[in-house]
Design a protein that fits this description.
The complex is a heterodimer. Chain A is mainly α. Chain A contains 16 helices and no strands. Chain A starts with 18 loop residues before the first helix and ends with a helix. In chain B, 43% of the residues lie in helices and 18% in strands. Chain B folds into three domains: 112 residues; 110 residues, Sandwich (Immunoglobulin-like), CATH 2.60.40; 87 residues, Immunoglobulin-like, CATH 2.60.40.420. Chain B has ten helices and 14 strands. Classes of the chains: A mainly alpha, B alpha+beta.
């Protein structure tokens, strides 16, 4: 934007409508909304894949899809839900809420933030284009060697998966660095680390997990790509040439287990905000919750081989990883007790958001307990790779992460849109979700213990699996209905919801201190000063400290300029990386666009 | 306070009771169902010492899990019911924590975990103790079938593992292509078959009978179609089976349909992949030397009857996705009938 001295606007209020304003935005709140709807779209795609899976398994020997299609469906269901739905949905919350909770005007690197989003979008599209080319990834979401080798997966399916994950990894890494920098550097005056809201804390822990875990999967994927795509193939996983298939498993799970905490910690952070607000009292044992979150994040590095109890680690290896895994149950239990302690003695308002937070605790307990059941290697050798594990992961990732995220949606929706979601539809949404998710996932414990392996496209009559599978299928269909209720509530409330004030729930943290809902582009006219934990609850009385965020005219505030270079940089990079599969025809133009856009981005004035 | 409490307690108590009943019913039902013969691949009906050690560990954990489940869910339900805001109710009591309480509920799970950890570690070491097998079998995983070699006995078969009852079976697990996992829940937990490595598994079957097993590591298109059976026999039956596996098979009469089948077998594509001692030496597919002693074909997918065998020879990939056995369009129905007749002599 050319700087005109005369008649300068009081502040840089950037265009707020039109497609172009969304393409060029660097406002953390609008990027959050982009993240949210993109992730929601991928969530429905992954859900559709799950429905096809469930229909195929409703009868022994069914033919809804072929074996190859089924293998692609379960691979892409998991890949989509983990990398394209749950993680970016968490990032949508990081984006919207973290600067507000810090009393900041934006993230530390607004254009890098836009870049992260576009890389995520293009990476997700790239991965799913594979369906159109009849080469959807079909090696399972943890892609074990040697099945992913050229000899056993000769099409481009695994290439799409490996390159797609690399692209998405770049989005995650850029985002994580951004949030670490933001949280460390952009805290409002007086907002010390032990006054940070727990959601901010969990974002910080998660971001550290991302920057430490993603390099490991990056290395593993680079090795896989060299094995598959190099003109002179390498042999990292090629047994005939001295490669080792277990190398992949160790690398994958050194990433993969922290990844589970990357998925669950943000949801834990969300409900640590929701529970105090609707109980009308501070989080019980703030320090315990924060430290146990850090401890979980740390211990997450020492348990990866509990995914590998059947590979023959030997008794000492099994024992170590088993005990380390059991240790994680302690901080997790502490969190659950602290959440219940938060509600104890409170005046609980049972809003939809609160119901989902309570549902999170209840369902997460089930996922945690089945987790303890296979932390014991002998028991795990019977449960591993069966539907019991499928039940476990869905209680953790749906009953945990997803319910937590939904609690967050109902909680922060008034702040984001200035409107309330319908409580009536919300209750329908909640109860239909709880009933249908249990109908879907609980019978999987039984089908697993009764001997049904996971990742089978069919099973024989006479194995006794049909009843449980039919229950799961019925539950999945009902779950789809509950999600449609949610979608209806969401779209309806955006347009017609009751208007919401700045702090509709009497929240205690700084995001509720913004002058309006939604907040002005610059968030805070005046950066507030913080003197305590839960600052909005400590404004009265002799020791009270009034939180002052100024007005809404934005006088003298310069916000970063919009820019399309992050988008073009992301596009160039994605096309360039597609060239790894499809050759220089894509690689060179993509590379040129990438370098040029990056150069223009670097020279562009930020504000 | 008092009048705020009264209407809630019955609700909370009912919820508590329902939860407890549900949790115990689930555990109970699981045990009851497991004993039914309708679940041939159940993990809850151990038939060997190794599997029983696992089951005992699991039982111990399940008791703790049910207790924790009931207590914590009840605490949650009670808290929500008891402290639900109502008009004229007490305001929230602000408190930031209680260190004694928090230390207590950090220690409680630690103590419970010790009760789980000790039997776990015991079972790990008990089941890992190398045992000299009475019968040693080399198990080789293929996409998507099982090769069973009995070194020292000169037996090479597929998809049906015969073992004598009460004798310790030592398995050497290997794979020629991708990772598979050997799993027969009645006798042991899973052990992976990893290319380039040899894994070991021991168990001592306690009952005669036929027990279901299946590949448990995703291994490609027909992972779901990689079944096997463990046939546990008395020593005499086992010896008889072993003798039959090694007994020479006479060449079919030159005028018979089977002889024509042999000729087709020899000049067709069969020999490239299959082994029949003295006839062909392929190692890609299952050994067919005694194929008609086996109850099923295609790794447990179909009963080994003439019709299924003919359909399988005609177009295996249509029956088993990804099957490396190619379709045989060049063979007439008569050719296939002759092949089936020949294979029926292999017993």
């Amino acid at each position: 934007m050319a700087t005109t001295v005369a008649a300068a606007p009081t502040h840089a209020e950037h265009a707020k409508s039109g497609l172009w304003s969304w393409v060029t935005t660097v406002d953390h709140k609008r990027i959050a909304i982009l993240y949210f709807f993109t992730a929601l779209g991928f969530f429905f795609l992954g859900g559709f894949e799950a429905l096809l899976i469930r229909l195929q398994l409703a009868h022994a020997g069914a033919h809804v899809v072929t074996a190859q299609q089924y293998n692609a469906l379960f691979t892409m269901h998991a890949t989509t839900m983990i990398f394209l739905a749950l993680m970016p949905m968490s990032v949508a919350f990081f984006n919207y809420i973290i600067p507000l909770q810090l009393g900041a005007r934006d993230v530390a690197f607004p254009r890098l933030n836009a870049f992260s989003y576009w890389v995520f979008l293009f990476g997700g599209i790239f991965m799913n284009i594979s369906f159109l080319m009849n080469a959807a990834p079909d090696g399972g979401w943890y892609g074990y060697a040697t099945l992913t080798g050229k000899a056993f997966s000769p099409t481009h399916s695994i290439d799409f998966w490996a390159v797609g994950l690399q692209i998405l990894g770049i989005a995650s890494l850029a985002g994580a660095f951004n949030f670490i920098t933001t949280i460390i550097n952009l805290r409002a005056p007086g907002l010390g680390f032990m006054r940070l809201p727990v959601f901010t804390w969990m974002t910080l822990v998660t971001s550290f997990l991302i920057i430490l875990a993603f390099p490991v999967i990056t290395v593993a994927l680079i090795e896989l790509m060299f094995d598959r795509l190099s003109p002179v193939p390498t042999n990292f996983f090629n047994v005939a040439k001295g490669g080792d298939p277990l190398l992949w498993q160790h690398l994958f799970w050194v990433f993969g287990h922290p990844e589970v905490y990357i998925l669950i910690l943000p949801a834990m952070g969300i409900i640590s905000e929701v529970l105090p607000t609707f109980s009308g009292k501070p989080l019980f044992g703030y320090a315990f919750v924060v430290y146990s979150g850090m401890f979980i994040g740390f211990m997450g590095w020492g348990v990866w081989s509990h995914h590998m109890f059947t590979v023959g680690l030997g008794p000492l290896g099994d024992t170590f990883f088993s005990l380390a895994t059991m240790l994680i149950a302690i901080p997790t239990g502490v969190k659950i007790f602290n959440w219940i302690g938060t509600m104890w003695g409170g005046a609980i308002r049972l809003t939809t958001s609160m119901w989902f937070a309570i549902g999170f605790i209840s369902m997460f307990i089930i996922g945690g307990l089945s987790g303890i059941m296979h932390s014991s290697p002998p028991a795990d050798t019977q449960q591993n790779d069966t539907y019991f594990v499928v039940a476990h992961i869905h209680y953790v990732l749906f009953g945990g992460t997803m319910l937590g995220l939904i609690a967050g949606i109902y909680y922060w929706f008034p702040k984001v849109t200035g409107r309330f979601m319908s409580e009536k539809l919300g209750k329908w949404h909640f109860w239909s979700t709880i009933i249908s998710m249990n109908l879907t996932f609980f019978p999987m414990h039984f089908s697993g213990l009764l001997g049904m392996p996971r990742r089978v496209y069919t099973y024989q009559k006479g194995m006794g699996f049909e009843l449980y599978n039919q229950m799961s299928t019925a539950g999945a269909l009902l779950l789809a209905v509950s999600l449609l209720i949610f979608l209806h509530n969401l779209t309806r409330s955006i347009r017609k919801g009751d208007p919401a004030p700045a702090n509709p729930w009497n929240g205690a943290t700084l995001e509720w201190a913004t002058a309006t809902s939604p907040p002005p582009e610059f968030n805070f006219q005046k950066i507030p000063t913080v003197k305590s934990l839960d600052p909005l609850w400590h404004q009265e009385g002799p020791k009270g400290h009034k939180i002052d965020v100024g007005g809404t005219d934005g006088r003298g505030i310069h916000m970063p300029n919009p820019s399309y270079w992050p988008m073009f940089t992301a596009l160039g990079m994605t096309v360039m990386m597609a060239g790894l599969i499809f050759g220089f025809g894509l690689g060179i133009p993509g590379g040129l666009l990438f370098v040029y856009s990056f150069y223009r981005w670097a020279l562009e004035p930020a504000s | 306070m008092a009048d705020r409490k009264r209407p809630l307690l019955p609700f909370a108590l009912i919820a508590l009771a329902v939860l407890a009943v549900l949790a115990f019913a689930a555990g109970d039902a699981a045990t009851a169902w497991a004993q039914s013969s309708t679940y041939p691949q159940t993990t809850l009906e151990p038939k060997s010492e190794v599997a029983r050690a696992i089951d005992n560990v699991l039982d111990g954990i399940v008791i703790w899990v049910i207790i924790i489940f009931v207590v914590v869910q009840a605490a949650l339900v009670f808290t929500v019911a008891r402290f639900r805001q109502r008009p004229g109710g007490a305001p929230a009591r602000h408190m930031h924590g209680n260190t004694t309480l928090e230390i207590a509920w950090t220690l409680a799970p630690a103590i419970i975990l010790a009760f789980i950890a000790v039997p776990t570690v015991k079972a790990i070491f008990a089941n890992a103790k190398p045992t000299k097998g009475d019968v040693t079998v080399r198990v080789v995983g293929h996409q998507w079938w099982w090769e069973f070699q009995y070194p020292g006995m000169g037996i090479l078969t597929a998809n049906e593992l015969h073992v004598p009852v009460g004798k310790t079976v030592a398995l050497e697990l290997e794979s020629v292509d991708v990772i598979h996992s050997f799993w027969v829940p009645a006798f042991a937990g899973k052990k992976d078959l990893i290319p380039g490595r040899t894994n070991h598994l021991w168990f001592t079957p306690e009952e005669t009978g036929t027990f279901a097993g299946q590949c448990a590591e995703f291994c490609g298109a027909s992972h779901a179609n990689m079944y096997f059976k463990v046939v546990v026999q008395t020593q005499e039956e086992f010896d008889a089976w072993a003798a039959q596996q090694k007994a020479p098979v006479a060449a079919p009469d030159s005028a018979s349909l089977a002889a024509r089948g042999l000729a087709i077998y020899q000049k067709g594509q069969c020999v490239a992949c299959h082994m029949i001692d003295g006839v062909s030496y392929g190692v890609v597919g299952p050994n067919l030397g005694k194929v008609s002693t086996r109850a099923t074909i295609a790794a447990g997918m179909f009963p080994n009857d003439d019709e299924n065998l003919a359909a399988w020879i005609r177009n295996a990939p249509a029956l088993k996705p990804g099957s490396l056995m190619t379709r045989q369009d060049q063979l007439s129905d008569e050719d296939i009938a002759a092949l089936v007749a020949y294979l029926r002599t292999r017993r």
